[in-house]
Design brief:
Chain lengths: ~90, ~450
Amino acid sequence: MKAIITVVGKDKVGIIAAVSTKLAETNVNILDISQTIMQENFTMMMTVDLSKGRVSLKELKVQLSEIGNRMGLVINIYNEELFNTMHRV
Amino acid sequence: MNEHEVIETLKMIQEEKLDIRTITMGISLRDCADENTKKSCAKINDKIRRLGGRLVSVGREIEETYGVPIINQRIAVTPISLVAESCSDTCDYFPFAAALEQAALEAGVDFIGGFSAMVHKGMTPGDRKLIKAIPRALSETGRVCASVNVATTKAGINMDSIRMMGEIIRETAIATKDRGSVGCAKLVVFANAPEDNPFMAGAFHGIGEAESVINVGISGPGVIKSALEKIRGSDLETVAETVKRTSFKITRVGQLVAREAARRLGIPFGIVDVSLAPTPSVGDSVAYIIEEMGLEKCGAPGSIAALMLLNDAVKKGGLMASSFVGGLSGAFIPVSEDLGMIEAAQQGALTIEKLEAMTSVCSVGLDMIAVPGDTDASTLAAIIADEAAIGVSNNKTTAVRIIPVVGMKEGDFVEFGGLLGRAPVMRVNRFSSSDFIKRGGRIPAPLQSYRN
């Protein structure tokens, strides 16, 4: 299953490192990353593949939000199918 | 997938209250008929447990998979008048309501619909027994919902059953007078009732339906309102286009959830009901959408035109997004469940008469309206007859869910709690309709029904 992770918050050192370390630990593969600074906010979007991951979407969500809480970021993860359904005919 | 699309979806879910309002499982109880009431009730309980036992847990799983909130899981069954009629040992159908209550409790659903009868043309002894049992059923159970279809475009309007329903509503109000007459909030009187509506209190599993089926009701007044906030001042063509596009996106999510629920439960997918169903919470109001279009208060002149635009655009967007759209599909205008409607009614912008007119262009009828407790049965019946006439003449569903709140008068405020909300007691026209209702009989089907 593919999922989309979004990370939004105040820019600081180590955001990408923290998120990607967690993904590596859980064997979740990163397929695509885009990152920008919008109105002084760090904004990152990742497409990831959980099919070989050691965690479920639900568990990963909890672990990512722990990172989010620690670093003052809002991290969301949603099933990619949701976005495809809504925006692609 | 670009960032804009991802962020739009996240905003819809996290800020604008996009949700799946209900996954409703329809279950046929036709094979639960028996000569013996106890046996029939036991069969009902077994069947609902067997088919509906996993409904709530599957709903939770899907919520986790997609991250879209699923607010309610409900069960709709074959109209009980049909199931109970074979019982030769009883005149009292209350045990069936108790059986449904127990089954709903075990399945973990908050409402179960189908304590119902179809009497749009005539009434069998079973129909009569069911209707007589409604006041007790709605006062002594918490989860059972009742509905009675009193008119169709094809059959005309059964004024005898309407007269009876006026009395039943009063009896139900009295039976639940210590709780704001809340029993009436679980009783819907229909014209042209849909057989696949997933929304309570009017859901039942129609006789043309399969053994069991999954119907999904979507919602999202907040999403539509936010979309319109971004195009303030633009012309109404742009408003219609924006509503249509937004409705498409919402319905696609409903379709995804419906298919997935059907797959996981191993039950066929029925329909997606594309409805804007408000809740009493902030940011989830249909009245606010109408006001966003440029009306000072919902109910102001222009409200019917605005509602017509909204209702139509919602359907057009939804039809493209789902292979099967059904149920009620359109905008709901339940007064007590919509913060904007409550305010409009309190401030005198919205009257029963204006609501009646609005029901000719929206998906349902006079919904969740509190009226003075001394409103007599014939006036209630006459209000139902007017709504039925609007539905029958316009080939659409109309419904009346009206609550004569015992002990309250115009201007008072009744609290039902939870999703049923709170309502100002509205003014009712004080001139009598009693001689008209006393006549009884049937109003013939209108000319437009003769299409063969």
